[in-house]
Amino acid sequence: MATIIGSVTTSHVAAIGRAIEKGLQDEPYWKPFFAGFGPVREWLARARPDVVVVIYNDHGLNFFLDKLPTFAIGAAPRYTSADEGWNIPTVLPFAGDPDLSWHIINSVVGEDFDITTCQEMVVDHAVCNPMALLWPGGQPWPVSIVPVEVNTVQFPLPSAARCYQLGAAVGRAIASYPADKRVLVMGTGGLSHQLDGERAGFINKEFDHEFMASLIADPTWVTKYSTVELVEKTGSQGIELMLWLAARAALTAGGPGAVREVTSTYHVPISNTAAGLMLLEPVP
Ligand SMILES: [Fe+2]
Protein backbone atom coordinates (compact mmCIF):
# COMPACT_ATOMS: atom_id res chain seq x y z
CA MET A 1 0.00 0.00 0.00
CA ALA A 2 1.07 3.58 -0.53
CA THR A 3 2.46 5.44 2.47
CA ILE A 4 2.24 9.17 3.15
CA ILE A 5 5.67 9.99 4.50
CA GLY A 6 5.04 13.63 5.38
CA SER A 7 4.10 17.08 4.21
CA VAL A 8 6.24 19.97 3.07
CA THR A 9 4.56 23.35 2.95
CA THR A 10 6.36 26.34 1.54
CA SER A 11 5.90 29.72 -0.06
CA HIS A 12 6.20 29.62 -3.85
CA VAL A 13 7.09 33.27 -4.59
CA ALA A 14 7.78 33.75 -8.31
CA ALA A 15 11.08 35.56 -7.62
CA ILE A 16 12.54 32.35 -6.15
CA GLY A 17 12.97 31.03 -9.70
CA ARG A 18 14.92 34.09 -10.73
CA ALA A 19 17.10 33.91 -7.60
CA ILE A 20 17.94 30.28 -8.41
CA GLU A 21 18.74 31.19 -12.01
CA LYS A 22 21.13 33.92 -10.87
CA GLY A 23 22.69 31.88 -8.08
CA LEU A 24 21.63 34.29 -5.32
CA GLN A 25 21.00 31.65 -2.66
CA ASP A 26 23.81 32.91 -0.40
CA GLU A 27 23.09 36.61 -0.82
CA PRO A 28 22.04 38.24 2.49
CA TYR A 29 18.53 38.93 1.19
CA TRP A 30 17.90 35.34 0.13
CA LYS A 31 20.03 33.28 2.49
CA PRO A 32 17.55 33.13 5.40
CA PHE A 33 14.99 31.65 3.03
CA PHE A 34 17.13 29.19 1.07
CA ALA A 35 19.04 27.99 4.14
CA GLY A 36 15.82 26.64 5.60
CA PHE A 37 15.67 23.93 2.95
CA GLY A 38 18.91 22.21 4.03
CA PRO A 39 17.22 20.13 6.75
CA VAL A 40 14.36 19.33 4.36
CA ARG A 41 16.75 17.94 1.77
CA GLU A 42 18.54 15.88 4.42
CA TRP A 43 15.18 14.45 5.44
CA LEU A 44 14.26 13.75 1.81
CA ALA A 45 17.47 11.77 1.34
CA ARG A 46 16.33 9.48 4.15
CA ALA A 47 12.61 9.49 3.39
CA ARG A 48 13.02 8.69 -0.36
CA PRO A 49 9.63 9.71 -1.78
CA ASP A 50 8.55 8.21 -5.11
CA VAL A 51 5.76 10.68 -5.79
CA VAL A 52 4.88 14.22 -4.71
CA VAL A 53 1.22 15.20 -4.60
CA VAL A 54 1.49 18.97 -5.05
CA ILE A 55 -1.45 21.04 -3.76
CA TYR A 56 -1.10 24.48 -5.29
CA ASN A 57 -2.92 27.27 -7.09
CA ASP A 58 -2.52 28.12 -10.75
CA HIS A 59 -1.76 31.77 -11.57
CA GLY A 60 -3.35 32.13 -14.98
CA LEU A 61 -1.14 29.70 -16.88
CA ASN A 62 -3.29 26.60 -17.07
CA PHE A 63 -6.59 28.23 -16.12
CA PHE A 64 -7.59 31.84 -16.62
CA LEU A 65 -10.32 33.97 -15.10
CA ASP A 66 -12.79 33.02 -17.82
CA LYS A 67 -12.66 29.30 -16.95
CA LEU A 68 -11.56 28.60 -13.42
CA PRO A 69 -12.32 25.31 -11.70
CA THR A 70 -12.53 25.29 -7.92
CA PHE A 71 -10.60 22.01 -7.72
CA ALA A 72 -8.64 20.31 -10.50
CA ILE A 73 -6.39 17.25 -10.48
CA GLY A 74 -3.85 16.36 -13.12
CA ALA A 75 -3.94 12.91 -14.72
CA ALA A 76 -1.30 13.48 -17.35
CA PRO A 77 1.76 11.35 -18.12
CA ARG A 78 3.95 14.46 -17.97
CA TYR A 79 3.67 18.09 -16.97
CA THR A 80 5.65 20.78 -18.69
CA SER A 81 6.42 24.12 -17.08
CA ALA A 82 5.90 27.45 -18.74
CA ASP A 83 6.36 31.10 -17.87
CA GLU A 84 3.06 32.75 -16.99
CA GLY A 85 4.51 36.23 -17.28
CA TRP A 86 7.25 36.61 -14.65
CA ASN A 87 10.02 35.74 -17.12
CA ILE A 88 11.12 32.85 -14.92
CA PRO A 89 13.20 30.16 -16.65
CA THR A 90 11.30 26.96 -17.29
CA VAL A 91 12.42 23.63 -15.84
CA LEU A 92 12.54 20.12 -17.26
CA PRO A 93 9.16 18.38 -17.48
CA PHE A 94 7.85 16.42 -14.53
CA ALA A 95 6.82 12.79 -14.97
CA GLY A 96 3.23 12.17 -13.99
CA ASP A 97 1.73 9.11 -12.33
CA PRO A 98 -1.57 8.64 -14.16
CA ASP A 99 -2.50 5.48 -12.22
CA LEU A 100 -2.20 7.27 -8.90
CA SER A 101 -3.91 10.36 -10.34
CA TRP A 102 -6.93 8.38 -11.46
CA HIS A 103 -7.07 6.54 -8.15
CA ILE A 104 -7.14 9.88 -6.29
CA ILE A 105 -9.70 11.35 -8.71
CA ASN A 106 -12.00 8.35 -8.42
CA SER A 107 -11.67 8.31 -4.66
CA VAL A 108 -12.37 12.01 -4.03
CA VAL A 109 -15.20 12.16 -6.57
CA GLY A 110 -16.55 9.11 -4.74
CA GLU A 111 -16.55 11.31 -1.63
CA ASP A 112 -18.67 13.90 -3.48
CA PHE A 113 -15.95 16.37 -4.47
CA ASP A 114 -16.58 17.84 -7.92
CA ILE A 115 -13.17 17.68 -9.58
CA THR A 116 -12.01 18.97 -12.97
CA THR A 117 -9.86 16.20 -14.43
CA CYS A 118 -6.90 17.36 -16.52
CA GLN A 119 -5.33 14.84 -18.87
CA GLU A 120 -3.17 17.67 -20.18
CA MET A 121 -1.81 20.28 -17.79
CA VAL A 122 0.98 22.83 -17.66
CA VAL A 123 2.38 23.93 -14.34
CA ASP A 124 3.65 27.30 -13.17
CA HIS A 125 5.97 28.67 -10.48
CA ALA A 126 3.72 27.36 -7.72
CA VAL A 127 4.81 23.83 -8.65
CA CYS A 128 8.24 24.44 -10.17
CA ASN A 129 9.81 26.67 -7.52
CA PRO A 130 9.00 24.44 -4.53
CA MET A 131 10.21 21.40 -6.48
CA ALA A 132 13.45 23.20 -7.32
CA LEU A 133 13.89 24.10 -3.65
CA LEU A 134 13.54 20.46 -2.63
CA TRP A 135 15.68 19.08 -5.45
CA PRO A 136 18.05 21.89 -6.52
CA GLY A 137 19.96 21.03 -9.66
CA GLY A 138 18.46 17.59 -9.33
CA GLN A 139 16.94 17.42 -12.73
CA PRO A 140 15.80 15.14 -14.18
CA TRP A 141 13.44 15.05 -11.25
CA PRO A 142 13.84 11.98 -9.02
CA VAL A 143 10.09 11.82 -8.33
CA SER A 144 6.88 11.93 -10.30
CA ILE A 145 4.12 14.37 -9.41
CA VAL A 146 0.34 14.57 -9.12
CA PRO A 147 -0.84 18.21 -9.27
CA VAL A 148 -3.90 19.11 -7.19
CA GLU A 149 -5.00 22.63 -8.07
CA VAL A 150 -7.22 24.83 -5.91
CA ASN A 151 -8.68 28.19 -6.88
CA THR A 152 -7.33 30.83 -4.50
CA VAL A 153 -7.36 33.50 -7.20
CA GLN A 154 -10.89 34.60 -8.01
CA PHE A 155 -13.93 34.66 -5.76
CA PRO A 156 -15.89 32.64 -4.90
CA LEU A 157 -13.10 30.63 -3.28
CA PRO A 158 -13.55 27.31 -1.53
CA SER A 159 -13.63 27.73 2.24
CA ALA A 160 -10.76 26.71 4.48
CA ALA A 161 -13.03 24.01 5.86
CA ARG A 162 -13.61 22.65 2.36
CA CYS A 163 -9.89 22.74 1.58
CA TYR A 164 -9.25 20.80 4.77
CA GLN A 165 -11.85 18.24 3.75
CA LEU A 166 -10.33 17.95 0.27
CA GLY A 167 -6.86 17.43 1.71
CA ALA A 168 -8.14 14.76 4.07
CA ALA A 169 -9.92 13.04 1.16
CA VAL A 170 -6.74 13.14 -0.94
CA GLY A 171 -4.91 11.63 2.03
CA ARG A 172 -7.45 8.81 2.30
CA ALA A 173 -7.14 8.21 -1.43
CA ILE A 174 -3.36 7.94 -1.21
CA ALA A 175 -3.53 5.66 1.81
CA SER A 176 -5.86 3.30 -0.08
CA TYR A 177 -3.67 3.11 -3.19
CA PRO A 178 -2.62 -0.51 -3.58
CA ALA A 179 0.85 0.05 -5.05
CA ASP A 180 3.86 0.31 -2.76
CA LYS A 181 4.69 4.00 -3.15
CA ARG A 182 6.16 6.53 -0.77
CA VAL A 183 4.18 9.72 -1.19
CA LEU A 184 5.13 13.22 -0.07
CA VAL A 185 2.33 15.77 0.05
CA MET A 186 3.31 19.35 -0.67
CA GLY A 187 1.26 22.49 -0.14
CA THR A 188 2.57 25.67 -1.73
CA GLY A 189 1.76 29.36 -1.38
CA GLY A 190 1.39 31.99 1.31
CA LEU A 191 2.02 32.97 3.89
CA SER A 192 0.54 36.43 4.47
CA HIS A 193 0.99 38.80 1.57
CA GLN A 194 -0.88 41.15 -0.70
CA LEU A 195 0.58 42.19 -4.02
CA ASP A 196 -1.75 44.97 -5.08
CA GLY A 197 -4.39 47.44 -3.97
CA GLU A 198 -4.42 49.75 -0.97
CA ARG A 199 -2.95 47.08 1.28
CA ALA A 200 -0.07 46.10 -1.05
CA GLY A 201 2.78 44.89 1.13
CA PHE A 202 0.45 43.77 3.93
CA ILE A 203 1.98 41.09 6.17
CA ASN A 204 0.56 39.62 9.40
CA LYS A 205 3.33 37.88 11.34
CA GLU A 206 1.18 37.21 14.37
CA PHE A 207 -1.46 35.37 12.36
CA ASP A 208 1.13 33.44 10.35
CA HIS A 209 2.81 32.17 13.51
CA GLU A 210 -0.52 31.19 15.03
CA PHE A 211 -1.46 29.37 11.83
CA MET A 212 1.84 27.49 11.65
CA ALA A 213 1.54 26.41 15.27
CA SER A 214 -2.04 25.28 14.67
CA LEU A 215 -0.95 22.92 11.91
CA ILE A 216 0.90 20.81 14.45
CA ALA A 217 -1.63 20.39 17.23
CA ASP A 218 -4.94 21.88 16.12
CA PRO A 219 -5.09 21.75 12.32
CA THR A 220 -8.77 22.69 12.00
CA TRP A 221 -8.19 25.96 13.92
CA VAL A 222 -8.14 28.11 10.79
CA THR A 223 -11.37 26.60 9.42
CA LYS A 224 -13.36 28.85 11.76
CA TYR A 225 -12.59 31.76 9.46
CA SER A 226 -14.47 32.56 6.25
CA THR A 227 -12.54 33.26 3.06
CA VAL A 228 -13.27 36.99 3.41
CA GLU A 229 -11.96 36.96 6.98
CA LEU A 230 -8.84 35.13 5.81
CA VAL A 231 -8.21 37.71 3.10
CA GLU A 232 -8.55 40.41 5.77
CA LYS A 233 -6.11 38.62 8.06
CA THR A 234 -3.55 37.38 5.51
CA GLY A 235 -3.93 39.50 2.36
CA SER A 236 -5.53 38.74 -0.96
CA GLN A 237 -2.72 36.32 -1.90
CA GLY A 238 -2.03 35.23 1.66
CA ILE A 239 -5.14 33.14 1.45
CA GLU A 240 -2.95 30.62 -0.36
CA LEU A 241 -2.32 29.33 3.16
CA MET A 242 -5.38 27.15 2.56
CA LEU A 243 -3.07 25.01 0.41
CA TRP A 244 -0.86 24.42 3.45
CA LEU A 245 -4.00 23.45 5.32
CA ALA A 246 -5.04 20.93 2.67
CA ALA A 247 -1.58 19.34 2.67
CA ARG A 248 -1.64 19.07 6.47
CA ALA A 249 -5.11 17.53 6.35
CA ALA A 250 -3.79 14.74 4.12
CA LEU A 251 -1.78 13.53 7.11
CA THR A 252 -4.99 12.73 8.97
CA ALA A 253 -5.61 9.73 6.68
CA GLY A 254 -5.82 6.40 8.42
CA GLY A 255 -5.21 7.56 11.97
CA PRO A 256 -5.62 10.29 14.57
CA GLY A 257 -3.49 12.60 12.49
CA ALA A 258 -0.83 13.45 15.03
CA VAL A 259 2.30 14.93 13.48
CA ARG A 260 5.80 15.89 14.47
CA GLU A 261 7.55 18.98 13.18
CA VAL A 262 10.86 18.04 11.55
CA THR A 263 11.80 21.62 10.70
CA SER A 264 10.24 25.01 10.03
CA THR A 265 11.34 28.52 9.17
CA TYR A 266 9.62 31.88 8.79
CA HIS A 267 11.25 34.89 7.17
CA VAL A 268 9.97 38.34 6.23
CA PRO A 269 10.10 39.63 3.61
CA ILE A 270 10.80 37.72 0.45
CA SER A 271 9.40 39.72 -2.45
CA ASN A 272 6.76 41.40 -0.24
CA THR A 273 5.76 38.01 1.16
CA ALA A 274 6.03 36.32 4.52
CA ALA A 275 7.95 33.24 3.42
CA GLY A 276 7.34 30.12 5.49
CA LEU A 277 8.47 26.52 5.38
CA MET A 278 7.28 23.52 7.41
CA LEU A 279 8.09 19.83 7.21
CA LEU A 280 5.76 17.60 9.19
CA GLU A 281 5.75 13.84 9.42
CA PRO A 282 3.02 11.59 10.80
CA VAL A 283 3.46 10.13 14.26
CA PRO A 284 2.72 6.39 14.10
FE1 LIG B 1 0.92 32.44 -5.52
Structure keywords:
alpha/beta, 284 residues, 9 helices, 32% helix
Structure description:
With 284 residues, the protein is of the alpha/beta class. It has an 8-stranded mixed β-sheet with strand order 6-3-8-2-9-1-11-10, sandwiched between helices. A 3-stranded mixed β-sheet has the order 5-4-7. α4 crosses α6 and α6 packs parallel to α9. The model has no long low-confidence stretch (mean pLDDT 96). The site of fe (ii) ion (FE2) has 7 residues, from loops.
**Oligomeric category:** single chain
List segments where confidence is low: pLDDT < 50 over at least 5 consecutive residues: none
- The largest sheet has its strands arranged as 6-3-8-2-9-1-11-10
Give Rg in angstroms.
Answer: 17 Å
Helix proportion range: 25-40%
Largest sheet: 8 strands, mixed
Distance between the termini: 16 Å
Q: Mean pLDDT, as a whole number?
A: 96
Class per helix and strand makeup:
alpha/beta
The proportion of strand residues reads: 15-25%
- Count up the helices: 9
Number of strands: 11
Element pattern in H and E: EHHHEEEEHEEHEHEHHHEE
**What spatial form do the alpha-carbon principal axes imply?**
globular
Small molecules (ligands, ions, cofactors) in the structure: fe (ii) ion
Task: Spell out the blueprint of helices and strands.
Blueprint: E1 3-10, H1 15-22, H2 31-34, H3 38-47, E2 51-56, E3 71-74, E4 78-81, E5 94-95, H4 98-110, E6 116-118, E7 122-123, H5 125-134, E8 144-150, H6 160-175, E9 182-188, H7 205-217, H8 227-234, H9 241-250, E10 259-270, E11 273-282
Helix pairs in contact: 4-6, 6-9
